[in-house]
Amino acid sequence: MTAPLRVVVVDDHRIVRDGLAALLGALDGIEVVGLAADGREAVHLVTDTAPDVVLMDIQMPGLDGIEATRFVTGRSPAPRVVMLTMNEDEDTVVAAMRAGAAGYLLKGSGAAEVEHAVRTAAAGGLVFGAALAGRVAALLADAAPRPAEPVFPQLSERERTVLDRMAAGLANDAIAAELYVSGKTVRNAVSSIYAKLGVPDRAAAIIAAREAGLGRP
User: Fold this and answer.
1) Can you tell me the distance from the alpha carbon of 83 to that of 67, in angstroms, rounded to the nearest whole number?
2) 20 to 30 A from 133, CA-CA: which of 61, 82, 114, 217?
3) Spatial contact of 183 and 173, defined as CB atoms under 8 Å apart
4) Strand 53-57 to strand 127-128: parallel, antiparallel, or no bridges (unpaired)?
């Protein structure tokens, strides 16, 4: 028999906590293992009960839901956290996701939507109300860090590798052996590196490479 999904409900309003607990407790395959009234209590409760999913209010006195989420998603194993809120503030959505939340559910959602959120989050999915889904996708795309441009973008990938090994102190023959290429291939790459970097010799190329962070173990 499959073990029930273990859920903790966190909200500073007792009527909300009790209402969600009653709703979830009546569903097959879901067990409410704890209720918390603020973020600090939630962190301790999650540690004690090891739930699969936490329904976490955002605005609470003391430790708010976003900070509490950052704490509980940093533990191992980490529960999936679905944030509960009264509004659809976009900055709050992004902050919640950056804290590790798996979803964002408006208070006042119907029973079916709450059940879907819990089961989807437990299965590893992301959860958003219909009104938020498209906006959240766009927000997270905008918030995602852009990949850093490689050092010396004018060099090919092989030339950057050769330069890195030069900066590490390897001679051409050793570089050729490490990369499983011929000595001629490495010599050609070195000549191309000099031309593209505008440096006169190996020493100047190595200095430039080390200043850019290449050649480190």
Assistant:
1) 12
2) 61
3) yes
4) unpaired
Q: Which residue carries 């191992």 as its tokens? A: 76
Q: Which domains does the chain have, with CATH numbers?
A: 5-143 (3.40.50.2300), 157-211 (1.10.10.10)
- The tally of CA atoms less than 13 A away on the side-chain side of residue 70 is 8
Query: Contact, 184 vs 173, CB < 8 A?
Result: no
For the record, the structure tokens of 17 come out as 């906590």
Angle at 71 between CA 115 and CA 20, to 5 degrees: 25
Place of tokens 């944030």: 83
Chain centroid to CA 122: how far? 17
Interval 130-137 mean pLDDT: 62
Query: At 175, is the secondary structure helix, strand, or coil?
Result: helix
**Least-confidence region, from 32-36, 130-134, 207-211:** 130-134
Task: With residue 83 as reference, give the H or E element that holds it.
Answer: strand 80-85
Residue 117 tokens, joined: 């959120």
